[in-house]
Amino acid sequence: MPFYVSPEQQMKDKADYARKGIARGRSVVVLQYADGILFVADNPSRALHKISEIYDRIAFAAVGKYNEFENLRLGGVRYADVNGYQYDRRDVTARGLANVYAQSLGTIFTETNKPYEVELVVAEVGESAETDQIYRLTFDGSVADEHGYVAMGGQADAVAQALKDRYTEGASLEDALRVAVQSLEAQDSDRHLEAKSLEVAVLDRNREHRLFRRLPAARIEELLGSTESGAAESSEGGSGGGASGA
Description:
The structure is a single chain. The protein is an alpha+beta fold and 246 residues long. The protein has six helices and ten strands, in the order H-E-E-E-E-H-H-E-E-E-E-H-H-E-E-H. It has helices at 7-23, 66-86, 94-111, 156-166, 173-185, 217-245; strands at 28-33, 36-42, 51-55, 58-64, 118-124, 133-137, 143-146, 149-152, 198-204, 212-215. The chain has a five-stranded antiparallel sheet. Helix 4 (156-166) packs antiparallel against helix 5 and helix 5 crosses helix 6 (217-245). The longest helix has 29 residues, at 217-245.
């Protein structure tokens, strides 16, 4: 006897399945800072990247199943290379790439039994913060135009709330990295993220040609250390000033 499932129930089951798979992974944060766009992933692996360069001014971040979002990344690189070669490098945009990903994810979600357990961010750095583009894509092909910051994977709601409380526009790289790390730690109050357990990259609008740059663990540690030492010095200065005033 054939077993019938309504289309509404089938779509709901697929969506629940994909959300559970994404929530089991580690979180990724993408946020704007004064000189570009910062990507921070809770990822201790040095070989399996969640953050990658797609083209001159475009980068990609993902959470979920590695083999699935790696296939999407490779497809995005091929799309960018072919369009840049056939037309002009300026014709390759984050918006166009997001549309391609949306079509692929939407088709996979509706036409296959198993949806992709992935969530993506495609970001393009502009000449100024106002022209930066950040697009968030979900497993069903939905696209959202984001501003300021994005959190996805793991306990994304807790991370997003921490970002909302801490994020400020036009922050320096040091401050933005500190905010991102503190927001990732908000998932677990007992957890402290060290430089070696983070994957960090930037799209720096002040660079020439290729604007994507990965930050090595030593540089991450230096940036986090500078923010902590700066906060300690300011608190000591404030207490000293209070004592002299008294």
